[in-house]
Amino acid sequence: MEVPTNASVIFLLEGIPELGHDQTIIAFPLCLLYIIAFFGNCTILVIIKKEESLHQPMYILLAMLALTDFGVSLTTVPTVLGIFCFNYNQIPLDMCLTQMYFLHALAAMESGVLVAMAIDRLIAIMDPLRYTSILTHSIIGKIGLVILLRSVCVVFPVPFLTKRFPFCRSHVLSHSYCLHQDIIRLACADTTVNSLYGLVAVLMTKGIDSMFIIISYIMILKVVLSIKANEAQIKAFNTCVCHLCAVMLFYIPLIGLSVVHRFGKNASHLIPILMADIYLLVPPVINPIIYSVKTKPIRQKIIKVFRFSMMRKKPSGHGVTSIKF
Question: What mean pLDDT do residues 251-280 have?
Fold first, then answer.
């Protein structure tokens, strides 16, 4: 059998095979999710940029989180909506590798931002008087640069390591977008190097990040429990609720997906598909909603913007035009 060259390899994205060939049945809810994700994250970014009172470490880090969530949505939207809206499921190898790179790099960036937000909350609770002097704009900028460079550099070799494989088996991928662990299972070669590097990359990013988040919250818990006043304890812990929700939305599906891919060989085919969709589609939708509802300054600014928009739309003078002489 002749092995096709990589230049001619076309992968087929499966979507949800249980729906059969016509997968447009869930096109509307998916479009709605993307609209909410784009609108929600853009709203947070615009409000934080325009309001000088929100140019604080906590909100700058929130803007970084919204930017990564926006990037994830933008990266997945072509293939996901292509499958479920137009029944188009083909993607060339180079485009697949490009999408794979951005998805994994953005995931590493989001993990890094969640660590920075955990440290931000730790400093705010442990030393509130020196909070703004410790986390200056310069420090936040350097943190953001480190997160970006780490993500870009760690994931950079993955597409090149993957492109060298011949793909002579089935070209059907399990998800609605390209993931590294999904692509290498179709390779007609030894994938040990890719598997080991993928594991090292995960440990260097999400593994180390999760450890720092756990340590930060252990220290936060000690500080909160040392506060004598119950109201002060609740107030201090409430500042961490949004971040904890964002951490759980990111890490629980990620851990579940990794476990299923590595050890769930006998699990239902639908489980990893649904977990992958939850992992990449749900956080960009839910994170801006949580922060809009639970963060008072952002909630107030959003309400103010909508009230101003509604007032501008109301007709004045009940339809009677006043003429000045």
Answer: 73
* Alpha helices (H) in the chain, listed in sequence order: 27-50, 57-86, 93-126, 131-134, 137-155, 157-163, 180-183, 192-202, 208-226, 230-238, 241-263, 270-294, 296-313
- CA distance linking residue 112 with residue 95, whole number of Å: 26
Determine the Cα angle at 282 with ends 16 and 234, to 5°. Answer: 150
Dihedrals phi, psi of 167, to nearest 5 degrees: -120, 95
End-to-end CA, the chain: 89
Placement of tokens 């059998």 in the chain = 1
Instruction: Name which of 155-169, 276-290, 292-306 the model is least confident about.
Output: 292-306
The helix (run of H) or strand (run of E) holding residue 11 is strand 10-13
Give the amino acid at 14: E
What separation in angstroms does the CA of 51 have from each of 9, 144, 275, 291?
Answer: 49, 20, 37, 16
CB 83 within 8 A of CB 163: no
How far apart are alpha carbons 102 and 295 in whole angstroms?
29
pTM score of the predicted model: 0.88
In tens, the pLDDT along 89-146 reads: 899 999 999 999 999 999 999 999 999 999 999 999 998 889 989 999 999 999 999 9
Q: Which tokens in the block code for residue 22? A: 């016509």
Calpha distance 189→314 (Å, rounded): 66
| Residue count (the chain) | 325
Which residues lie closer than 8 Å to 162 by C-beta, 6 or more apart? 97, 100, 180, 183, 184, 187, 194
- Kindly tell me the burial class for residue 238, based on how many C-beta atoms sit within 10 Å of its own C-beta (0-12, 13-18, 19 or more): exposed
Q: Per residue in 60-105, pLDDT tens?
A: 999 999 999 999 999 999 898 888 888 888 999 999 999 999 999 9
